[in-house]
């Protein structure tokens, strides 16, 4: 059985809740990624949320706020979703589709070991599974 760990992009660079969005954007550019996990200051690898490049634009820049002054804690919201490294691909797809998310942290032994993105799915899934995923994620009406 193919697992989350088999298809994920290994490793993850973290930011903390107190890091600025400017720092997050610069790190995203440097790493060529569109999302970063956010940890709290006391347990930097305790997942508190995820910041995406879109979050920075929509929740900060478009509101006329300064990315140099806004912090990750200013824009993260909700409970972050994640998947166990040993979960099967069907479970990964269910989690992403049911919550309409495009990136999913992978956890092993209470530590984040990687991230699954749409690009990872595209590299590892058969075409029919990928098409079904896209239909659920991009459908006009919520699942």
TrEMBL record:
Pfam families in alphabetical order: CBS
Domain CBS: 8-69, 75-132
Entry-linked PANTHER family: CBS DOMAIN-CONTAINING PROTEIN (PTHR43080:SF2), CBS DOMAIN-CONTAINING PROTEIN CBSX3, MITOCHONDRIAL (PTHR43080)
Lineage: Bacteria, Bacillati, Actinomycetota, Actinomycetes, Kitasatosporales
Gene3D superfamilies reported in the protein's UniProt record: CBS-domain
Keyword tags: CBS domain
PROSITE patterns in the cross-refs: CBS (PS51371)
Natural source organism: Kitasatospora griseola
InterPro entries documented for this protein: CBS_dom, CBS_dom_sf, Diverse_CBS-Domain
Domain of life: Bacteria
Signal peptide from the UniProt entry: none
Keyword ATP-binding carried by entry: no
The protein, known as: CBS domain-containing protein
């Amino acid at each position: 059985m193919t697992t989350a760990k088999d298809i994920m992009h290994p490793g993850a660079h973290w930011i903390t809740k107190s890091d600025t969005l400017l720092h997050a954007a610069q790190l995203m550019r440097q790493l060529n990624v569109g999302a970063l996990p956010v940890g709290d200051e006391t347990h930097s690898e305790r997942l508190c949320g995820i910041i995406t490049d879109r979050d920075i634009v929509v929740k900060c820049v478009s509101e006329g706020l300064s990315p140099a002054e806004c912090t990750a804690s200013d824009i993260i919201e909700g409970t972050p979703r994640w998947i166990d490294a040993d979960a099967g691909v069907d479970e990964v797809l269910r989690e992403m589709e049911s919550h309409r998310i495009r990136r999913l942290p992978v956890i092993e032994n209470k530590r984040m070991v990687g991230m699954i993105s749409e690009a990872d799915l595209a590299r590892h899934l058969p075409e029919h599974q990928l098409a079904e995923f896209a239909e659920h994620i991009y459908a006009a009406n919520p699942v």
